[in-house]
Amino acid sequence: MHAGLIWLGAAVLLAAGEAAGGELILIMLAAGALGGSGAAFLGAPVWGQALAFALVSVIMLAAVRPIVRRRMLASLPEHETNTAALTGRGGTVVEAVDGSGGLVEIAGDTWTARPLIEGETFTAGEKILVHEIEGATAIVVRGL
């Protein structure tokens, strides 16, 4: 069997492994294997094929991978998490909310709450919107 075909087989296996991992390392090594295959088909000795594999792999890992990763990460949408994700969400008053506190249900969880505007009160069953979260307390305004 021709050495170039062995390098091609290695490239295919490395690319298949990348599909399982997704860290962009095996695909860079697959490109190196393609370089070794090309060298083999051009008649290079085994050490020349290995050198082509190593050079292409190092260039791909050092130069191409960081650029591709940066582009992939930049295309991911940013999502708010934890309490930041609750800002602007609607909820329902569970226990009357006034200046001294109360309880609201937001996204299935019960939170202590107080109104944004001093003196404002909300009765049980009223709809509210979360203005912000301070510690474990939701600061709320009248909802729609």
TrEMBL record:
Gene3D superfamilies: Nucleic acid-binding proteins. Pfam families: NfeD. InterPro entries: NA-bd_OB-fold, NfeD-like_C. Keywords: Membrane, Transmembrane, Transmembrane helix. Residues 84-141 form the NfeD-like C-terminal domain. SUPFAM superfamilies: NfeD domain-like. The chain crosses the membrane at residues 45-64. It comes from the Bacteria. This is NfeD family protein. It comes from Dietzia aerolata.
